[in-house]
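Hello again, I could really use a second opinion on something today. I've been staring at a protein lately and its backbone has me curious. You're getting the sequence in one-letter code plus the fold written as tokens. I'd be grateful if you could look everything over and explain what you see. No rush at all, and the record is pasted right below:
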Amino acid sequence: MNEGFNIKGKSSDKLMIFDLDDTLVISKAKIKVMDAATGSLVKELTPAEYNTYVEKEGRILNFDDFQDYGILRKSKLTKYMLLLKHEYQKGTHICILTARQKSDMIREFFLYHKIDILPQLVIAIGDPKWNLQGSTAERKQEAIIRLIKQGYKDLTFFDDNAENLQMAKSLEESIPNVSINTVKV
């Protein structure tokens, strides 16, 4: 049986998983809804608005703002970032699980904030290196399954999206001896 990642000499089966946007940071990044025919901007969505957005024919989504390190670095930190920092300083294993596309950029952001999260625990589900498929919730669920296979059995998952949390929580039913506490941010 795996004992989880060994971080700074501490092996653990406990893991705290944090979403990034609207959980740890509030950024000015927006999802741009574009007219497919003309390429013109129809409207901009915040991550919270995107959580309930229903895609329409003739519209394409542009996520370029979420690949801009400058926008991310200027983000406002939430109270959950303070919790993450506190737990990190205690030696708790931390994972970032975000819908963004660049894991390395996310890791760089945390290093800027003096939080050295292992690259294996910075998971941007849109990053091709993770080879995750499906909806955002399905990709996050698959990433959590991979973490469980590494030996993590006691997980706490913070996210602003109810569907992501429900998909994660449902794993308790299919994977024995796993506890997943979910926190709606």
